[in-house]
Amino acid sequence: MSRVYVCNCFGVTEAQVKQHAEKGACTPRQIASACKAGTDCGSCVRRIQALLGRGAHPGRELVGQTEQAGSVLADLKDAA
Where in the numbering of this chain does the BFD-like [2Fe-2S]-binding domain appear (predicted)? Predict the structure, then answer.
């Protein structure tokens, strides 16, 4: 089994990040507290976000949801 390193600075593997996530870490900061990944050069933070199921720009997801909600409200107004 090969090890896929997420954080080369501290030698943290993808499996380790996933283990910390299973134990409740749900943000890159919580992962950093658990194993230091992302606290030196920071180049692994986006990969950590991806492993946690968050995009590099989580606000973009909210923009899409806001636009969708506005469309639904417009449809309701038209129906009334």
Answer: 5-53
For residue 42, the model assigns a pLDDT of 94
Q: In 3D, which of 15, 44, 53, 23 has the Cα closest to residue 32?
A: 44
Q: d(Cα 16, Cα 18) in Å, to the nearest integer?
A: 5
- Residue 52 and residue 37 in contact, taking contact as beta carbons nearer than 8 Å: no
Domains and CATH numbers, the chain: 5-79 (1.10.10.1100)
Report the distance separating Cα 59 and Cα 62, nearest Å: 5
CA distance linking residue 43 with residue 72, whole number of Å: 39
